[in-house]
Specification:
three-stranded mixed β-sheet, 17 strands, Helix Hairpins, BirA Bifunctional Protein, domain 2, 434 residues, alpha+beta, eight-stranded mixed β-sheet
Length: 434
């Protein structure tokens, strides 16, 4: 058991680690992650030896205790036997302590291992090596000087960073009036599309979770500094994404074959400390401590995740197509794929105010990585035996960044914003925000 979480050691497939550690090291090296497979195997061999020795000592102690009882019954001198049991007890205690420390050392290594990458992930070290898969739409052509979302929102008096700063400090936003309603309209439009057209089940989940939920999805223990948490002996963590509570719906569950796939959509606020991001996107709403997101989560049977990733990505793309926003899809290279992901597509929307594509959705398959941590399984219909499910998630899409994209791509020369046609019914028929 892991003393930090109270859970069994869980990570990538332990059999694969022990039988093919060198191959695991080669795969992880694509990320730039150094896994010392020889050192790991040496630790595991030492664990096996200690485990056998400990079991032998336990057996000897049990036999000696039984012999003491038999000697007592016969009226024999049991002093030598008691001394032998005491010696066995001391040796056993030392072995158990050493074994516990070694198991924890191995567990710490295993918890730190990122997921194995799929073979189709492009090689590369940084976002510069990501591979463009496709583009959709034409960039908006303006006959006037383009403003960014900050200038547009502040000139309308509907985006107030200074007011937010007085309340909560940097990286927060206050929105008023039609602009706040526009964000709500975007969220409602996404939820309606995903539930009515794509077969997702809308779900409402907690915004505060316990540590084990974040361990299950892979945010902990690796990314503790990126999270906000309460100052308690057993703290709650504010969710960094709805992926955490929604994916944990599969925790400790054995699905029957006919119960998969399952698809969930959830709208939640998300909270991130943005540790290490100082100096990046400090202006505006691109990188906030609190933001809104519509999240898509899939539970599928093993072997179905590749097709599900393409489907999920397509669902997120449709939102941008309906909004008539130009975007591109890129396959993240090995060095840019997230810690728990086996493969990721980023969808990047065109922002005229920055004159670049910026991420608005990240769609990933985790294969069985999260399922192993959460003990989420399904029954194989052919063998009848339980096997780990595969999990996927993606933004469908990030509401704040969708709002930025609409503001910048639908801006008018006078500073007003045209409301996309698909959102006008959600805005009570309003066509222009001014």
């Amino acid at each position: 058991m892991d003393w930090k979480t109270g859970q069994t050691r869980i990570m990538i497939d332990p059999k694969l680690l022990r039988q093919s550690a060198a191959e695991v090291a080669i795969n992880l090296a694509k990320r730039g992650y150094v896994f010392d497979s020889a050192a790991y195997q040496a630790l595991d061999e030492r664990r096996k030896t200690l485990q056998v020795e400990t079991q032998q000592l336990q057996s000897e102690r049990n036999s000696s205790s039984k012999a003491i009882g038999q000697a007592k019954a016969k009226g024999e001198d049991i002093a030598p036997l008691l001394a032998a049991v005491d010696d066995l007890g001391e040796r056993l205690a030392k072995n158990e302590s050493a074994l516990g420390e070694l198991q924890q050392e191995i567990a710490d290594i295993e918890y730190d291992l990122p997921n194995l990458l799929e073979d189709s992930v492009p090689e590369g070290r940084s976002e510069d090596d990501n591979v463009e898969i496709r583009k959709w739409g034409e960039r908006t052509d303006f006959a006037f000087a383009v403003r960014d979302h900050i200038e547009i929102g502040e000139s309308l008096g509907m985006l107030k960073f200074e007011a937010a700063s007085k309340i909560s400090g940097a990286r927060f936003t206050v929105m008023n009036g039609a602009l706040a309603r526009l964000q709500r309209a975007l969220i409602q439009f996404m939820l309606d599309t995903h539930t009515s057209e794509h077969g997702y089940e809308e779900t409402y989940v907690p915004y505060l979770v316990h540590r084990h939920a974040l361990v299950g999805t892979g945010q902990l223990p690796k990314f503790e500094e990126d999270l906000f948490k309460t100052d308690d002996e057993t703290p709650f963590y504010l969710i960094p994404t709805a992926e955490v509570p929604v994916t944990n719906l599969a925790r400790d569950t054995l699905f029957e074959a006919d119960q998969l796939p399952q698809k969930f959509v959830a709208h939640t606020p998300c909270f991130r400390s943005e540790a290490g991001s100082y100096g990046q996107d400090t202006r505006g709403m691109i990188r906030q401590h609190q933001f809104e997101k519509v999240e898509l989560v899939h539970f599928v049977a093993a072997g179905q995740s590749s097709a599900a990733l393409e489907e999920l990505t397509g669902h997120a793309e449709l939102i941008l197509q309906r909004l008539e926003l130009a975007y591109r899809v890129v396959a993240l290279c090995a060095g840019d794929v997230g810690f728990g992901s086996a493969k990721t597509y980023d969808i990047e929307v065109w922002l005229p105010g920055q004159e670049k594509y910026r991420e608005i959705s990240s769609c990933s398959t985790y294969n069985d990585y999260q399922a192993r941590r959460m003990k989420a399984r399904s029954r194989n219909p052919e063998t009848g035996k339980p096997e780990l499910i595969h999990t996927l998630n993606g933004s469908g899409v990030a509401a704040g960044r969708a709002l930025i994209a609409v503001m910048e791509n639908y801006q008018n020369e006078d500073g007003s914003i045209r409301v996309p046609k698909v959102l006008q019914t959600y805005m009570g028929g309003l066509e222009v925000i001014k």
